[in-house]
Specification:
mainly alpha; globular
Length: 83
Amino acid sequence: MNEYEYQFFTALKGQFEYLFANDPKYARIADMNLPSDYAGKFIAGLKDGSAAKDGQAVKGACKALRIKNTYKAINNFFENGSE
C-alpha cells in the first residue's frame, strides 16, 4: 500500500468506524468485520472496480480527501495523490 492508498484507507476506516458504531444498517457488517479489515477489502475492490463507490463510507472518504467520487478519480488518487 503506497502513501496515497494509506491516506484513503485511513479516511475510509474512520468512516467505517463511525458507521459501524452509529448506523444500524451497518450492524451485520460490523459483527463480521473490523473497520480496518473492511476498509482494506474496499481499497482492493475500488482498485479493480468490484466495490461500490456510492456508499456513505466511500463518499465520506472522498469528501475528506477532496476528490471526486468516481472510480477514475479514486484510482488516480491511489496512484499519484490527485484526481
